[in-house]
Every structure is written in C-alpha cells, then in structure tokens.
UniProtKB/TrEMBL annotation:
Assigned protein family: Belongs to the 'GDSL' lipolytic enzyme family.
Name of protein: GDSL esterase/lipase
Signal peptide region: 1-27
Keyword presence, Signal: yes
GO molecular function, one term: lipase activity
UniProt-listed GO biological process terms: lipid metabolic process
Organism: Chenopodium quinoa
InterPro entries: GDSL, GLIP1-5/GLL25, Lipase_GDSL_AS, SGNH_hydro_sf
Keyword terms: Signal
C-alpha cells in the first residue's frame, strides 16, 4: 500500500466517526455525541494540551461573541440538534465538575477517530442506545488539507473521492444489516456530500 493511499485511509478513519446516539430511557431523550471537530463542543479546551482548543478569535464570533471551544465561528452540529429537541447545549465530557449526564454529553474531540476494536455502535446498543445518527464521509478529495498533504493544486483529487464513495456504500450496507439484526435499532445517515459540493 502506497504512502498516498495510507494517508487517504487514515483521513477516512478520522472522518468516519460515530456521531450521535440516543437512548429512549428518558421522557426527553438525551443526546450522546461522538465525533471530530465538526462536533466538538469544547472538549479540546480541557484535554490538558496548551493551545489545542478553539479558544481564539474568530472562533465563536457570530453566535457566542467569544471563543467557545468550537471549531466554528458559531454553533456546531450538536448545538443545532440540542436546540431543535429542546435540550441545553451539551457540555464536553472533560469539563470539570460534571456529574449529571441525564440530558446527554458531548464526547466529540477535534482529530478524534473510531478504532475498529472499540465497536462503539454495538457497545452503545448493548447499554440501551437504540436511535443512531451517523454522518458519512464527505468529499475529502476537495478538502484543502487533503490537497495540501498530497501536494495537489487542482479542484478535487479523484482517488480520495472514490475511497470515500466506497466507504460510504459499505457503511450504509453495514448499518442496514444492523437494523435487521438488532431489535429496536434505528438509524439515519446524513449525506455530507450535497452541502459541501453545492457551495460555490
């Protein structure tokens, strides 16, 4: 396997994260969030690495009016979901003093990935999680970071795009299989491609 392919597969692993799981044990279903910087609600502010968090301007500028630990100038995806279902913004798991997880918690952290041996979806299912939302891998061949790593000056790299398509097809098949195999397992997959490719 060439260095380029290994780099692409590593990037796929970073983006192929379990994003949200919910449990139906409460009247108001809590959200438990897993993911990378697209979902990080401030975890990296508490990881003990100096300067690792999104604690500088312009992060947070348009909504919080100050850096709020999110890799965005405003809210991130879990913030919108929490607001939509009437929950407060989810606090990051590493935030000191947290003891109540009944409204959910945000485990997402920038640069996070899922290890095959952890099998987070089935582990969470065994703990009572029944409703899952996943995001597929976006058009990584068009990302500036990917193009920079591979020294590409064009619009989009076809090899990472094809690897993402292959991964997404296999993941959709796996999720469908789980729905038939695990009683009560329900899922949705958010297709990250249209919003990314429609930006002009």
């Amino acid at each position: 396997m060439g260095r380029r392919t290994r780099t692409i597969l590593l990037t796929l692993a970073l983006y192929a994260t379990l994003l949200f799981t919910t449990s139906n044990a409460q009247a108001k279903t809590p959200l438990f969030v897993f993911g990378d910087s697209l979902y990080d609600g401030g975890m990296t502010l508490y990881n003990g690495i100096e300067g690792a968090g999104a604690e500088f301007w312009p992060y947070g500028d348009t909504y919080f009016k100050r850096p709020a630990g999110r890799y965005s100038d405003g809210r991130v995806i879990p913030d919108f979901l929490a607001q939509y279902v009437g929950l407060p913004f989810l606090r990051p798991y590493l935030q000191p003093g947290l003891e109540d997880f009944t409204q959910g918690i945000n485990f997402a952290s920038a640069s996070a990935c899922v290890l095959v041996e952890t099998r987070p979806g089935t582990t969470i299912y065994s703990q009572g999680g029944r409703k899952f939302a996943f995001q597929n891998v976006g058009p990584i061949g068009c990302m500036p970071s990917m193009k920079s790593m591979l020294h590409y000056d064009g619009s989009c790299l076809e090899e990472p795009l094809e690897l993402a398509r292959m991964y997404n097809a296999e993941f959709a098949t796996l999720a469908n299989r789980l729905q038939y195999r695990l009683p009560g397992f329900k899922y949705t997959i958010y297709d990250f491609h249209p919003p990314c490719t429609s930006v002009s």
